[in-house]
């Protein structure tokens, strides 16, 4: 009986491999398969820190420009705010990742103790969990009995099934995520400020420099919107449009606030 089961499994694996090979040559079948999103926390840190940086820095520039301050004021305040926010974002990412790892490690230790010292109740709890998900009592008992032979796998399964937590990954390095977030924030956040540097030899008009900052910000937002779509498996055009709309809304609000403070509150006096 066991040999027949092994033979059947091996045959299914061979058939699956043959289907994959045939699928690679079949254009229609390849087109039907959804595209895989980008994976990895580093990629996500780059994209989302970059989006936050562009919107934050461009909004600051908008409010300063509405107040009719000079290009020097824009550069000083812009870069000072950029570095401060970048450090804050990087440290926040590091602390968040470290805390998440510590919590997962503590939860795993508790779950491991429960599995070791309360094996029967823990297995019954997992059994009821599978049955609530729609698994038959016989299949659920088979699965739990298999997991019970492998303590580490049973601990990990209980963490995911009952606590919704993935086991801590020893390969994760929180300092790397924090560094990537900081660098991404600085690099992409500098895009709106580049206009005030690049155009220095060509014009003294702060209005033209501000328009240049708008163009660079839109281009950077479009690129990051496309990258965000790649991560989430969304449509590129829609993601880019929503990202630009998000940045434009924040910048318009900041510009309106700066104009209001200057013209109504009398801060120009």
Automatic annotation (TrEMBL):
GO terms for molecular function: iron ion sequestering activity; iron ion transmembrane transporter activity. It comes from the Eukaryota. It catalyses: Fe(2+)(in) = Fe(2+)(out). Coiled coil: none annotated. Residues 1-10 have a biased composition (Polar residues). Pfam families: VIT1. It is found in: Vacuole membrane. The chain crosses the membrane at residues 179-202, 208-226, 238-261. The keyword Iron applies. Keywords: Ion transport, Iron, Iron transport, Membrane, Transmembrane, Transmembrane helix, Transport, Vacuole. Vacuolar Fe(2+) uptake transporter. Belongs to the CCC1 family. PANTHER family: FE(2+)/MN(2+) TRANSPORTER PCL1. This is Vacuolar iron transporter. It comes from Eucalyptus globulus (Tasmanian blue gum).
